Each structure stands twice: as C-alpha cells, then as structure tokens.
C-alpha cells in the first residue's frame, strides 16, 4: 500500500505565483490579501471591539456578509496568525474572535496608511506645486 503524504494547507499569504528573489512579490501578495472582500473591515472592527462573537461581528460589518464568507475570512486570518479564535465551553457553543499581537500591529499599519492616504488626497486637491 502506498503511503500518502499530506501537505500543510497554505495560508492566505503563502504567495501563490511568486518567484523566488522577486522582492515585490511579497508586497503584492500582502496587498491582494488585504483587498479580499471583508478582510480589512474584519481587522478594523476587531481592533476597536477587542473581542467579538461571530454573530455580533457579522451584524457589525457594513453590508450583507454571508455567514459562509465571514467564516472563510476568519479562518484565513486565523491561519495567518492575525486573528485568534476562542471556543467557550458553554451550551450553546460560544466562539469569540480577537486580534492577535500581529493583528494589532497590522491594524496600526493600516491606520498609518489611512493617514497617508488622507494627506495625499489633500495634496491632490491643492495641486502638485502646493507645499505640505
């Protein structure tokens, strides 16, 4: 009988088609990861609420995210080490999500990016030759 090797499931940031030595590929993978539907909103909401149950998080997100999509995104974020999941030993089962240390670091970076975007928008409205 042939033994089957099992491979570890790649995380959402594992780099799909990146070529070794391509410095920009990791940044591209990261940007694509953040651009996935609901990813940045989940991180933003968990950063502000600290810990949330699945249903509360689903209701708190803008728009109509399906339970299936939210569950998939949370699993991806958990596999990347950005979100932690805690199962409370209660009936009915209670699951809580929160950001990990790396998730909080990512939120801080997103806030800095948000501030930079705002400065660039203001500069664009003033015109290219206007001083900062």
Overview of the structural elements:
With 132 residues, the chain is mainly α. It has a single domain, classed as Orthogonal Bundle (Arc Repressor Mutant, subunit A). Helix content is 53%, strand content 11%. It has a 3-stranded antiparallel sheet. Strand 2 and strand 3 form a beta hairpin. The longest helix is centred in the last third of the chain and has 26 residues. The radius of gyration is 19 Å and the shape is elongated. The N terminus is likely disordered.
The coarse silhouette is: elongated
Number of strands: 3
Low-confidence runs (pLDDT<50, min 5 residues)?
1-9
CATH superfamily, please?
Answer: Winged helix-like DNA-binding domain superfamily/Winged helix DNA-binding domain
Give helix and strand order, one letter per element, not per position. Answer: HHEHHEEH
How much of the polypeptide forms β-strand, as a percent range?
Answer: 5-15%
Average pLDDT, to the nearest integer?
83
Structural classification:
mainly alpha
Largest sheet, described in full? 3 strands, antiparallel
| Spatial strand order of the main sheet | 1-3-2
Which percent range fits the helix content?
40-55%
Tally of alpha and pi helices: 5
